[in-house]
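Work through this protein:
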Amino acid sequence: MWYNKNMQNRERHWSVDETELKKDPEQYAIWRLEQRINWGLGTGKIKKKELLKYWKKIDIDTSKRKVLALALK
């Protein structure tokens, strides 16, 4: 993987075949949320509705979950 100092390549994950993952829309949405929250993958804002929809299914760090829970109130 090459280094992009402008971080323009933050939309893609180097170790996952997203084409295959997209065949299951729910799993893709959950994976995408986890990547965006845990690792900062992506450049847009996370939609509150989508986050609430998958809240119980996403695997995120406990401290991040607590902070997000406060923000969702």
User: Anything to note?
Assistant: The two ends are 39 Å apart (CA to CA). The CA atoms of residues 13 and 42 lie 10 Å apart.
